[in-house]
Amino acid sequence: MPRSYASTVLNATAGEVWSYLRDFGNLAEWMPGVQTGMIEDGGPADRVGCVRRLIGPGDSVFRERLTDLDDDALSYSYVILECPLPVRGGYGRLRVSPVTDTGQAFVEWSGGFSADAGDEEAMRATFARGIYGAGLESLRKRFG
Predict the structure, then answer these.
(1) b or e along 92-129 (b: 16 or more beta carbons within 10 Å of the residue's beta carbon)?
(2) What CATH code is carried by the domain that includes residue 33?
(3) Alpha-carbon span 55 to 69, nearest angstrom
(4) How many domains does the chain have?
(5) Can you give the residue range of the structural domain that contains 14?
(6) What does the pLDDT look like over 134-143, one tens digit per residue?
(7) Using an 8 Å Cβ cutoff, are 106 and 5 in contact?
(8) How far is CA 19 from CA 50, 60, 81, 87, in A?
């Protein structure tokens, strides 16, 4: 199963970053290309089992279910339910850690998926750079 990964350091504390990122429904606020996002049943965005519906480029629909949210580990995990990309069985994890010598936040976004052999490398790069990397770059700007 191919995996993708991206990470960055933000000029904010891990607590500040986690306070913002733990909202599973706010991806449209900071993720480039996501036009709108919402929790489908209108419930809390930090409830394990909630589903976020995202509208991206060309009105593409992404649906993801929150499978774990851990305030002690400053992380959440999700599975991809619907995605216009040629992947199956996708999942992701977003995690924040303190950089102890500077007081900054280290953020990593990772995930995996299944795909046809001819699509694996392109999808690995799409997730690593086009999704995870682009999202983390946006967070760097947000947290200045």
Answers:
(1) bbbbbbbeeeeebbbbbbbbbbebeeebbeebbebbbe
(2) 3.30.530.20
(3) 23
(4) 1
(5) 3-142
(6) 999 999 999 9
(7) no
(8) 18, 28, 25, 30
